[in-house]
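Reopening: 4F5 domain-containing protein still failing for me.
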Amino acid sequence: MTRGNQRDLAREKNQKKQADAKKRLGAAGQEGNAGLSMDNRMNRDADIMRIKQEKAAAKKAEEAAAAAANAKKVSKVDPLKM
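Support: Ran it again with your exact input. Result attached.
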């Protein structure tokens, strides 16, 4: 046990080195983007965002409808016209 934690330090150093190398590859080097051109990636991402926006709008409309259905009808009374 004369080596101490040298093995652990070397492992951490190697992991950091590999992470830095992966960062330098950019978007094209990521696993999800393999084999796609920039235009294809942009179209894919735009489609995903469009779907997210549609879901968010549907959820917002559903919540507004539920709130309107649960809201009590309050009539304003003008005390001067009584």
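The mean pLDDT is 86. If you still see a failure, please send the error message rather than a screenshot.
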